[in-house]
Design goal:
The protein is of the alpha+beta class. The protein has 13 helices and six strands. About 0% of the residues have low confidence.
Length: about 325
Amino acid sequence: MQGIELSRKYFEEYGRPLLEKDFGHLLPFIAVGLAGSGSECLGYDDEVSRDHDFEPGFCIFLPGEETVSRRDAFLLEKAYAKLPKEFMGIKRERLAPVGGARHGVIRISDFFEKTVGSRDGSLTLGKWFSVPEQSLLEATSGEIFFDNYGLLTGIRESLSFFPRDVMLKKLAGRLLLMGQSGQYNYQRCIDHGETGAAQLAAFEFADSAVSAAFLLAGRYRPYYKWTFRALRDIPSCALLEPIIENIITTGNAGDDAARKRSEIEAVSGLVIKSLKEHGIGDESSTSLEAQSYAVNGAISDSSIRNLHVLAAV
């Protein structure tokens, strides 16, 4: 059983009855679910994941003290702490994990301050460029079982993906790095006999290709250890994922280098095809550098468009 299902079952068994019996006056104002950090919030947890921070539990999200008082929050915390310490053979942690508790009573403002650095979830242009994608994913992943007040859900929806101009700026930078590292510098490193540098070029190309794929799919890129798992979940990336994995796991000599050049061009072609499907980029060019500047030119906000093309990567 995965973490979200365990959380939902635990809530339905113990949490909902508790809230309905003792905290009915708060039900119009609270949200309950499982959100934040951890592979269980992405649905990527497995048997290996159970070696830490895996327990039956859920989050009770509260609006500000003007709506749910400090006293009510304290009583909720006490009630949550008294819930059964074991469920379906899995025990709850006695101590909060490093970085703070993932379950229990959480103020909505504290949740968004921790994940995106903004207590009301609103982001300035600078914040959209500086908040890590994995943090934005933490703020918007998981599952909310119910949200009668709507505040949490509304903020999560506002953060669901980058504004278009921010996305285009990030994409333009990634396309340029793909072109420099893959279409240009990889072969030059091979010609110089610098196989280590060639592998770095391959890594740079693969990393930027992965980011471009997530941007074009309208999805935040997760923490690196879940990147390939997440790519496999995106239908439009089904062809990309095994090629990119091969690029970063093979050598750079002889036939391997020739094959890798072919794979780099295959990935470049798939990304350019996706650009065309989205109606952006340069329809006539196979150069990723040309695609980069075409995408940058499509940015509506001149203050963003005029930033250095690599400003967002």
